[in-house]
């Protein structure tokens, strides 16, 4: 546990553990999809869309807490949810692929926000670790989906 503090300086240990635990459903459902289980892909798409909505909500909250938020903060707070919803309306393969791209694109937008001092660097570091893991699982499932 002591070494965990140094993985991402400034990040509370519960955020690290809970963030990493959030990858478990991605891994399990991508595995289920690859194994041909009929529920795996849809369950993964629903989870991915939920996570994408969560990512947007983070920025909505940060925008509301800021003294003078620009409109871009609110856009980053709303667009991920809309993309997640569209992904659920698509056929499974393109929906999973869209979720993978959207999760990475949200992290890229957060990188720009961090450069402007709008997102804590510890959060950004964790987000990239989680985004790569989630997007990788979504991409594998998109390729494996039938």
UniProtKB/TrEMBL annotation:
Domain of life per record: Bacteria
Keyword Membrane: yes
One family name in Pfam for this protein: DUF3429
UniProt KW keywords: Membrane, Transmembrane, Transmembrane helix
InterPro entries referenced in this protein's UniProt entry, alphabetically: DUF3429
Residues spanning the membrane: 44-62, 126-145
Name of this chain's protein: DUF3429 domain-containing protein
Species this chain originates from: Falsiroseomonas frigidaquae
């Amino acid at each position: 546990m002591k070494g965990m503090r140094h993985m991402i300086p400034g990040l509370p240990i519960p955020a690290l553990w809970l963030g990493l635990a959030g990858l478990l459903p991605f891994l399990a459902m991508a595995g289920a999809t690859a194994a041909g289980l009929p529920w795996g892909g849809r369950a993964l798409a629903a989870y991915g869309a939920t996570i994408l909505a969560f990512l947007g909500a983070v920025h909505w909250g940060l925008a509301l807490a800021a003294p003078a938020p620009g409109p871009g903060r609110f856009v980053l707070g709303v667009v991920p949810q809309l993309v997640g919803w569209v992904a659920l309306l698509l056929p499974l393969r393109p929906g999973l692929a869209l979720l993978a791209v959207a999760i990475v694109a949200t992290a890229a937008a957060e990188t720009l926000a961090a450069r402007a001092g709008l997102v804590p660097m510890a959060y950004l570091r964790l987000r990239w670790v989680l985004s790569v893991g989630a997007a990788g699982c979504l991409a594998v499932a998109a390729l494996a989906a039938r």
